[in-house]
Amino acid sequence: MQVHCELCGKNEEYAFSRWRCDCGGAWVLYPSQPLSADVINREIKSIWRYDAFFPQEIKKIQGSLGAGFTPLLHSTIHNRDVQLKLDYLMPTGSFKDRGVELMMNTLAAGDVKQVVEDSSGNAGASVAAYAARLGMKATIFTPAHASPVKLSQIATYGADIRTIPGARSNANQAALEAVNAGAIYASHAYSPVYLLGQQTAAWEVWEQNNYQIPDWVIVPVGQGGNLLGYYEGFQALQKAGLGEKIPRLIAVQPERLAPVCDAFEQRWKEWPGLSAPEKGSIAEGLAITNPVRWEHVVHAIKESDGICVKVAEEEILPAQRLLAELGFFVEPTSAVVIAVFGKILKIIERNESVIISLTGNGLKSSPITLQ
User: Fold this and answer.
1) Residue 277 above 90 pLDDT?
2) Do the domain assignments include residue 63?
3) What's the first-to-final CA gap in the chain, in angstroms?
4) Cβ(339)–Cβ(318) below 8 Å
5) CA distances (Å), 237 to each of 190, 195, 247, in order?
6) How large is the average pLDDT for residues 31-53?
7) CA-based radius of gyration for the chain
8) 300 is a domain residue
């Protein structure tokens, strides 16, 4: 597989031990072939319906849990018609299963037997589940303050959990120490294959929306892999002549830690040293102080003529409740997209179509969040 560095432009053959470029940049894959509606395998109801567009090395399934092809349902929120992409209905309850299923199958095809990952919960659970499915051993480094429900889920899959005191970045550093000692890094933040898997969300929306490109897509942003999946996925459709535009992307972050919004609004040229706030956000999955692909994310928002919006803490739980009362139970990290929706209606015309990405299952958060 040929990869390209986002930062310095270097090209090389992808190797698992070379999880990032020498300059520190993250890899992206060269497309294997242009998209075509004719070769979608409609008999398969998972990300593998698009295997014709995957690199040759990962066309064969090593082990699937059925990630992908989640429902796209109409609903009415704040008296507006929207479509909800239910990516919280994934095998491990998180949108991350799209990219992780493809990433872990790639590692299995390369005969990798043991991996490490750092995560505040959802990515770790996904890697742990796929490691179990594929006969691998997984070590997951997590912040000690991570959701007990998510830690329990990771442990249930049989992974080795290493809880690291302090900020989320400490878990990342601990994982990198293991990688430097020779471990293979199954990183949802850095893996170019993970990012390819996330593009399948855009392709599904296109199919489910009668082969039409929506006007807006609203997503929560931490590392930004979900937003980039939509951006790159719709861009691939546009390049293939299957869509005339890229939807306008709305990135949503909690006010307590919204560095992507700050970078977008203030036009940062380089990433400053950031530390986590003393009081964390209830949207814990978005608490990322150093998003690996931040420049790519900011570029995607700008190129789509999108915006980045911050949400106050007191707005998140009411949004979670609003969705639950409509029958959609998501975790607070996912509910931020509903918290922001009422604030941005003035920029969305009534005849414009809106996709809202619901990313994490409510069963992953403590029940106290609904009191």
Assistant:
1) no
2) no
3) 49
4) yes
5) 23, 16, 11
6) 90
7) 19
8) yes
Residues with Cβ within 8 Å of 356's Cβ and at least 6 positions away in sequence, in order, are: 77, 82, 83, 84, 85, 217, 218, 337, 338, 341
Tell whether the model's pLDDT for residue 40 goes beyond 90. yes
pLDDT for the residue numbered 98: 98
pLDDT average, residue stretch 112-118:
96
State residue 371's pLDDT score. Answer: 44
Residue 181 lies in a domain: yes
User: In terms of domains, do 198 and 167 share one?
Assistant: no
Task: Give exposure, 233-265, as e/b (b: 16+ Cβ within 10 Å).
Answer: bbbbbeeeebbeebbbbbbbbbbbbbbbbbbbe
Q: Angle at the Cα of 89 (from 88 to 95), degrees rounded to 5? A: 45
- At residue 254, the pLDDT reads 96
At 279, is the secondary structure helix, strand, or coil? coil
Whether this model's pTM surpasses 0.85 = yes
202 and 244, same domain (yes or no): yes
Number of domains in the chain: 2
